[in-house]
Write a structure and sequence with these properties.
This protein is of the alpha+beta class. Helix content is about 20%, strand content about 15%. α3 packs antiparallel against α4.
Length: about 150
Amino acid sequence: MSVFRPYVENVENVENNHFEETFFNKTQPVQYANLNSDMPAYKKWSFEFFKARCSDVLCQVSDNLEDPANITRKISISEYIDLMKNGEHCPYMTGWSYQKILPELDDDIFFPKFHPDDFIDRLPKRMQFRRRWVFFGKKGINLRSSH
């Protein structure tokens, strides 16, 4: 089974109305690049940071890089980071939603002015769902498209 991956544009700076017309209204995926380096995440988040904070936290991985949606097992984030750093075979890690386990990480990031307000934040806490993910991956993993 093949997974469809649309083209994802890198955006560094864009006017609000252009962002809305080009990405938001058309529900096109976008990857932010070179955001504000004053963000705490840039200073705090490292592999060592996540290894220390997430030694027992499990993530889903796929050993089949041709079919990364086929989850084959769960391993600790700490173990996954070791696999990446040690140059061993490294499976594909699906997005890890950190908000249930480490909700304080939300305080380490903020979005650029062109990013629309998140209406989900206006819902009562009990109705909000986890919608932010951290992706780790070994340099050079080729999944035939940007993601």
